Amino acid sequence: MDILILGIGNVLWADEGFGVRVVETLQQCYQFPDNVSVLDGGTQGLFLLPYVQTTRRLLILDAIDYGLAAGTFKIVLNEAVPQFMGVKKLSLHQTGFQEVLAAARLLGQYPDELVLIGVQPASLEYGEDLSPVVRAQVMPAVQLTLEQLARWDVNFQSVLGGTCDIG
User: Fold this and answer.
1) pTM of the predicted model as reported, rounded to 2 decimal places
2) How far apart are CA 61 and CA 23, in angstroms?
3) For the chain, which has fewer Cβ within 10 Å, the N-terminal or C-terminal residue?
4) DSSP labels for 109-154?
């Protein structure tokens, strides 16, 4: 596949579900061409390897502890992405997406371009929904994703006439 939009995280742990909620909103509100896949990666860890191996451009949406104010976005590109995706570094997942990227590189099937759109979480409490400050960033993250797709010359269309509910 040419482009993979991948939301990762655990919706059972409040803001940890941010990436999943963004891809749910994208799937609900937009239609993409056949060369673009939108995937709820949840906490699948190494099971995501085949998807990463077969994509040319990878856009990741995730809650990342950057040490910033809650709700703050940070966009990381290409070779800098793996340092923010490891369990013992800054990612909030028990299964490290950094390991998925490392395995893809080791196997010689690594995306040409990586974009990480991360948001600083406010709450990681079990059983809670997104905190208000992070929930307010879902639609801006959708917009950042659409802007990146436009830079990649992807044509997409709204399926709901411009109004969306956040997942």
Assistant:
1) 0.88
2) 8
3) N
4) ---SEEEEEEE--S---TT----HHHHTTHHHHHHHHHHHHHHTT-
Give the list of residues 6+ apart from residue 116 with CB closer than 8 angstroms, or none: 60, 62, 64, 75, 76, 77, 81, 84, 85
Q: Could you report the per-residue pLDDT of 143-163, keeping only the tens digit for each?
A: 999 999 999 999 999 886 656
**How many CA atoms, within 13 angstroms, populate the side-chain half-sphere of residue 78?**
3
- The structure tokens listed for 18 are 């941010």
SS3 assignment, position 70: coil
Q: Could you tell me the sign of the dihedral formed by the alpha carbons of 89, 152, 39, 156, in that order?
A: positive
What CATH number should be reported for the domain whose range is 3-158? 3.40.50.1450
Task: Please tell me whether residue 78 adopts helix, strand or coil conformation.
Answer: helix
Q: Would you kindly state where each structural domain of the chain is located, as residue ranges?
A: 3-158
